[in-house]
């Protein structure tokens, strides 16, 4: 891709896609008044950099080739404060293309599919056709934990907002475009796409209205003479939009020093069986079972999830269900050769917590001076919502560091699950007026990392993606699984995003698979294989195992292990055996619920089929000739299906999987030819 100035605007010209007449735009405030720098023309040489200014700001837009295989362009906007008044920066739009000819890609919006990524771990990510609507969840409780309140969606058909990255595919021609920020520690960011749809009954075609990529400075104060730069925006086009998304993830991971474990961590977690009622005895029973009935299942850590704490915010004091205390329990877990893990929501504080009572000045407050409420969770406090710490305060950072040091270093909880982290990035009036919301969250995460030490394993949860890269080792990429699939009522109640639903959780596991190994190890959430206290069918358990194994995510058990039948424990073992490949979600853009996953390993290729449908269906896998060759596959007469053990005949390029139950899955194990030298 190359940038060319034309008539005071910039064109980004690629082989597959061209963005025309893009210009930057900045919204800001001076002495309380809202202003906008929206140049109608940019100055500068044909290949940039290009500038524009008003009385208060000068912007400089520069481009450079992106390193790595993406062959894209990196765009950056630098904003300098002119004059002698401080400026509060709001949105800096690095590029905005507009009008019907603003983006040339294939035959136009009628054949486009947009990959839309959500804000945090729990937020929805999937592809959309242009005539779809993408409203935020209507239920306040779900909206509050999954959506950035600073970037709400309007929800009209044809109006989309993706966070951090967006991909566009031309479903007819096959090519695509990615717009993604390759930094997330300084700014939260959004990509907006608006398409004007044909009028009811009218003959006009869908047309681009706007495509814009924006870094959010959240009103951060910039003093006169200072220069702030946006995160770099990668713009890349190419023949394969799935590859483009993965190329963006690789670029972000490299730019922000991602921590990627050599192999994804694995273990046991108390939450999805015991929930908040967990006791010390439950954890000790799991520990004993891990060495006996479940001895063949790799369980690297044993984690005490939510339910140990005296109060949200007081992480060093246990309640009566943990009589030995946290330090003794960690020592006993570690004595078995496993790592000890602990859940905490480090940036939250309950009304009744010691931390909130002792330090009311630590609480994040709104413009009116009232503490910001992050959520209301009746299992923690029926009467009050949870407050948030202002993590730009040095004393709060010192506190976070000390808590993490005590838990991870002094007591030995080498694995910390950091939950509800979005709270630290909520809008509010902060101690440090120069801090963006992303920087406030990043400072909070950095403090935890400093305290926990370089070797601790930090797993992010309820965490916006961009600021987490480079701090966390593992990252939840979807909403909570549940011992139920989640049918139509769930879909309606959660607006088909967020909430507690194995189906919705597994969709993100698949749609965010390309982040894995580039930004962190993906945590798809726990794999429940039990037969007690569950309404998951055997098919749904297979689906869960298949999705987690094919995407190579963390494999975390959350059953009462001594009650799990041996053949179900075998499924956990099988998940380990099947994982380890590089996953490609073939129909990521073609389907909102992708069903075809290809996991490539050294000696075999696993072809997975996920059946999302609510009715049984006959399924055939077809691999065309070039695909067999590209994957280096031997062409056996029959192949093994991994989840049922069936041997299935190969007929030409087709394998008949038979009739799949609702929410079932199959995995074909295709041996690769020995690599030719
Ligand atoms: C512990 C759980 C588990 C789980 C996390 C997270 O809005 N809510 O009230 C709400 C409650 C729980 C929740 C998300 C939202 O789940 O994802 O794995 O650790 O916390 O409370």
Give a quick set of tags describing it.
Immunoglobulin-like; 677 residues; 21% helix; eight-stranded parallel sheet; alpha+beta; binds 4-nitrophenyl alpha-D-galactopyranoside
**β-strand number:** 40
Query: Gap between N and C termini, in Å?
Result: 34 Å
Give the CA-based shape.
globular
- Could you tell me the radius of gyration in angstroms? 25 Å
Mean pLDDT: 96
Number of helices: 14
Helix content: 10-25%
Ligand inventory reads: 4-nitrophenyl alpha-D-galactopyranoside
Helix/strand-derived category reads alpha+beta
The main sheet comes to: 9 strands, antiparallel
Unreliable stretches: none
Question: How does this structure look, described?
Answer:
The chain is of the alpha+beta class. Among the domains are: 2-117 and 164-255, no CATH class; 566-677, Sandwich (Immunoglobulin-like), CATH 2.60.40. Helix content is 21%, strand content 32%. It is built from 14 helices and 40 strands. The strands form seven sheets. Strands 6, 7, 8, 11, 12, 14, 15, 18 and 19 form a nine-stranded antiparallel β-sheet that branches. Strands 31-30-29-28-24-21-20-32 form an eight-stranded parallel β-sheet. An eight-stranded antiparallel β-sheet has the order 33-34-35-40-37-38-39-36. Strand 4 (25-30) and strand 5 form a beta hairpin. Helix 7 packs parallel to helix 8 (437-452). The longest helix is centred in the middle third of the chain and has 17 residues, at 394-410. The protein starts with a strand and ends in a 6-residue tail after the last strand. 4-nitrophenyl alpha-D-galactopyranoside is lined by residues 141, 145, 271, 305-306, 343, 375, 377, 419, 461, 480.
């Amino acid at each position: 891709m190359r940038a060319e100035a034309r008539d005071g605007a910039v064109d980004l010209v690629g082989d597959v896609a061209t963005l025309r007449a893009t210009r930057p735009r900045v919204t800001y405030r001076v002495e309380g008044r809202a202003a906008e720098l929206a140049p109608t023309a940019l100055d500068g040489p044909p290949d940039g950099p290009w500038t524009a200014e008003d009385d208060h700001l000068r912007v400089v837009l520069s481009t450079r080739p992106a390193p790595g295989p993406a062959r894209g362009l990196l765009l950056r906007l630098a904003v300098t404060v002119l004059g002698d008044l401080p400026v509060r920066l709001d949105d800096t739009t690095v590029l905005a293309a507009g009008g019907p000819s603003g983006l040339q890609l294939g035959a136009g919006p009628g054949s486009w599919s947009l990959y839309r990524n959500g804000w945090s771990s729990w937020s929805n990510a999937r592809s959309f056709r242009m005539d779809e609507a993408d409203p935020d969840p209507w239920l306040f409780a779900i909206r509050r934990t999954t959506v950035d309140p600073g970037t709400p969606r309007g929800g009209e058909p044809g109006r989309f907002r993706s966070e951090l990255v967006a991909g566009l595919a031309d479903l007819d021609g096959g090519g695509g475009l990615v717009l993604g920020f390759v930094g997330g520690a300084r700014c939260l960011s959004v990509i907006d796409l608006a398409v004007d749809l044909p009028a009811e009954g009218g003959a006009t075609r869908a047309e681009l209205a706007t495509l814009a990529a924006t870094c959010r400075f959240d009103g951060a104060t910039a003093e006169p003479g200072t220069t702030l730069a946006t995160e770099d925006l990668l713009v890349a086009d190419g023949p394969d939009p799935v590859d483009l998304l993965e190329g963006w993830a690789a670029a972000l991971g490299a730019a922000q020093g991602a921590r990627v474990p050599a192999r994804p961590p694995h273990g046991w977690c108390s939450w999805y069986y015991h929930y908040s009622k967990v006791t010390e005895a439950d954890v000790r029973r799991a520990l004993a079972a891990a060495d006996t009935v479940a001895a063949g299942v790799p369980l690297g850590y044993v984690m005490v999830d939510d339910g140990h704490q005296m109060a949200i915010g007081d992480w060093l004091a246990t309640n009566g269900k943990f009589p030995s205390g946290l330090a003794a329990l960690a020592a006993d877990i570690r004595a078995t050769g496993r790592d000890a893990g602990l859940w905490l929501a480090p940036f939250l504080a309950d009304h009744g917590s010691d931390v909130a009572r002792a330090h009311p000045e630590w609480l994040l407050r709104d413009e009116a001076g009232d503490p910001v409420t992050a959520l209301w969770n009746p299992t923690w406090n029926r009467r009050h919502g949870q407050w948030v710490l202002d993590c730009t305060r040095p004393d709060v950072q010192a506190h976070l560091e000390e808590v993490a040091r005590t838990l991870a270093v002094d007591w030995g909880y080498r694995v910390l699950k950091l939950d509800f982290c979005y709270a630290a990035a909520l809008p509010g009036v902060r101690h440090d007026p120069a801090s963006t919301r992303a920087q406030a969250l990043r400072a909070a995460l950095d403090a935890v990392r400093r305290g926990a030490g370089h070797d601790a394993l930090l797993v992010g949860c309820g965490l916006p993606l961009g600021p987490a890269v480079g701090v966390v080792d593992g990252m939840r990429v979807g909403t909570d699984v549940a011992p139920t699939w989640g049918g139509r009522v769930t879909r309606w109640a959660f607006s088909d995003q967020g909430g507690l639903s194995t189906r919705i959780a597994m969709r993100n596991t698949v749609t965010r698979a390309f982040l894995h190994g580039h930004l962190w190890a993906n945590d798809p959430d726990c794999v429940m294989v039990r037969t007690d206290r569950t309404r998951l069918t055997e098919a749904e358990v297979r689906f869960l195992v298949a999705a987690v194994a094919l995407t190579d995510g963390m494999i975390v058990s959350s059953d009462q292990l001594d009650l799990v039948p041996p053949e179900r424990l075998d499924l956990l073992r099988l998940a380990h055996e099947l994982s380890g490949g590089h996953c490609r979600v073939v129909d990521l853009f073609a389907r909102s619920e992708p069903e075809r996953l290809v996991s490539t390993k050294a000696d075999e290729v696993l072809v997975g089929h996920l059946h999302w449908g609510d009715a049984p269906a006959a399924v055939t896998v077809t691999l065309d000739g070039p695909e067999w060759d590209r994957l280096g596959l031997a062409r056996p007469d029959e192949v093994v299906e991994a989840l049922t053990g069936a041997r299935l005949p190969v007929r030409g390029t087709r394998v008949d999987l038979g009739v799949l139950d609702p929410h079932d899955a199959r995995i074909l194990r295709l041996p690769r030819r020995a690599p030719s030298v």
